[in-house]
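Usage

Read records sequentially. Each one opens with the input sequence:
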Amino acid sequence: MACTDPAARAAELRALIEHHNHRYFVLDDPELTDAEFDELVAELANLEAEHPGLASGESPTARVGGEASTLFAPVRHASAMMSLDKTTSYEELIAWGARMERLGAGRSAAGRAGGSKGMRFTCELKIDGLALSLLYEHGRLVRAATRGDGEVGEDVTANVVTVAAIPRALFAATKATSTGESLPVVVPSLVEVRGELYMPIASFDELNRRQALLGARQFINPRNAAAGSLRQKDPAVTAGRDLGFWAYQLGAVDGGPGFSRHSETLEWMREAGFPVNPHIRVVEGLDEVDAYCRTWQDGRHSLDYEIDGVVVKLDDLAEQAELGSTSRAPRWAIAYKFPPEEKTTRLVDIMVSIGRTGKATPFAVLKPVVVGGAKVSLATLHNEDQVRAKDVRPGDTVVVRRAGDVIPEVRGPILALRPQGLPRWQFPDRCPACGERLERVEGESDTFCVNESCPAQVVARITHFASRGAMDIEHLGEATVRQFVDAGILRDVADLYYMDYDKVATLEGWAGTSAANLRAAVEASKGRSLANLLVGLSIRHLGATGSQLLARHFGSLDAIAAADADSLSNVEGVGPVIGASVAGFFALDANRRVIERLRAAGIRFEDPDAVVLPQVLAGLSIVVTGTLSHWSREQAEEALKARGAKSPGSVTRRTTLVVAGRDPGAAKIAKAAELGVPVIDEEAFEGILEGGVHRS
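and closes with the structure output:
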């Protein structure tokens, strides 16, 4: 039920906005698209305007961005990295221009060309990425920071220096004058350059393809991928991602040339070695601004990077200074946001696919429609609850949206266009592939086909087993696997190693040579790692990361299969859900029979790199703080985990011990004292690695 109390609704909106700010800025895992988030902020701003008593300096509408995460050291910006006010229409652009005129901007232009019509503006594509501040001293990069909350960001220098697009040093470039003379580009003793870190669309697609092959979480959009690639503890991860950068603003400057227009600063940055977007234009008046915005709203998909609008800035720097800013945004700039792309089309049918674990996922079959620059004919409906909540029905006219401009999604039906008597869609109670009963997991939203012999599951499991992220068997895509299943050649993953290649050679599209190539690919897969084998077994909830952790910890498939759920769960990074799922998988006789056939085929069951140590610290939680003489922080934590302990970053009631080196964290020591958690030194730490913890 909608909330009618303005104060209660304002409080609810603030809580929602804070939650989604945290998901976006700290976790890099947004739950809403930008447009949906903007709607919450706009609703709160309207409420505060209608009820001034509700306004507060602590409101999200008065602040910039969100909190900085705690992954990196904090950095206080020399001047605030502000947000931008937003507009979505020509009428709002005109209103913005009128506000600037009332505050004194464009006085000299007003006499010539009628106020804002004579003002000069720079129009810049609004890159959907991550704002950065780059500080250079005497031409060398000394610090890179995220925007954070506008006042305090995160020090990400070690990661940023791996981005090829960002210069580590400003070279003394030259520029040609109108007479042909070459003049040096003056480099200030200190200069701050601000810009946007982004991931090209092609690189984003490739990254998600790799993530999918590894069974890892995919990124929802290029902005999320860029932020996640930057916020890595290991700079090598950032270096392995293809990231770009566009410079768009000068911050603090000490020394160097003087500028009178923003467009001059952009030219200087380009000459000094920064990538500056080639589509930036200086225009006269808001009619030309509007034309520029419309051009790029239509042409946004011609670019290899995501944009969600246009940033419009008054070009005259003196007038910028005169206009100043509010508590959160400059008065001389505005973001023209493009509307989220939505289209209507007919929902032809709702079908259910069966995955390798038996999960039944409903999806929409659509009359093809172009949304966000791509033709969409299928869209996810997630699960039974989502279909019920949206109440979409075959025959409906539905709104289709590429949420975040990436994932095709059916938003809901247009009820006014619904044909009379259209029946509600019912989730099937029988598997569409094998006819067996579908069962819903208690307490979850997912429904499963529990028939292990379901042909859809068999095809999906074998295809996954042969995929690059698992056993990497060439020539075995989904169509081929289905062909072999239909021909009776394959029934489970172990059958891959007992195939009748003479029979394969007789199938349509196959011959002696192609069958021999397949045999060689299957033989090569026998040497894949234990982690690859675990991924390939399609154990529910177990992905690439969990497989690597289990392989490293236990060292062999037999040890993993023999471990109980608690032992599996105690492996750092695994947890009870995965632990119970792995234990349940190996408890089934059918799965054990497959494992034995894989063993007989010569599949590698050992991890030669694993060092399995006595689990003398199993089940304990030990926090390391301060500097140890003979161990880095990472080495100490790995040593604890290798012996069965967990090593979290904070002290809680579950903490068993705190290991304190030189200059330990005062807050952790104080918390340990408050909770009565013992604190030990490095010598005692090395003792427990050998003999465990003895309780009196």
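Summary fields computed downstream for this record:
- Residues 108-115 have pLDDT under 50 and may be disordered.
- The chain has 25 helices and 23 strands.
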